[in-house]
Fold:
Amino acid sequence: MSFPVLHGERVLVRDLREDEFESLRQMRHTPEIVKWWNPGSSEWPADNDDGEQNLAIEIDGELAGHIELYEEIEDPNWRFATLDIFVAPERIGQGYGTEALKLVIEFLIEQRGHHRITIDPAADNTAAIRSYEKAGFRPIGRMEKYWRDGDGVWRDSVFMELVVEPPS
Structure:
């Protein structure tokens, strides 16, 4: 499913292009990102086959991050979306990720009719958790040994959600 271009004050969110895959893989393998995302396959993000959409975060005309989006849209009784995000190391801590998330959240609620959006950062990624809280998410629980990092260590995550009044 194609994703529209979303324009913010400082960021643009759009579909990731195939010619950007290698740059994104390199970004994902930087120490600042690989700490929170396992390295992934050599085919990532082309190997996403479970309905996930890969979105690019663009700043000043350059690829500066990634948002992974999954939407449950088939069953109207279970509509929700799940997000994951990273921004380039040189862009961390400047509010770009929060701005990009807010753009996507607004679109998912207003245009796609979602009322519940989730995200699940590593429990010790306090900067990400603060960013997600600024975007409107709230922590609702801890998931123990939820994901395995690049060193093979099972790590905990915080389950966070943003819920608005569902449409009738």
User: Anything to note?
Assistant: The helical segments are 21-28, 31-34, 96-110, 126-134. The longest strand covers residues 62-72. The CA atoms of residues 71 and 81 lie 4 Å apart. The chain has a mean pLDDT of 92.
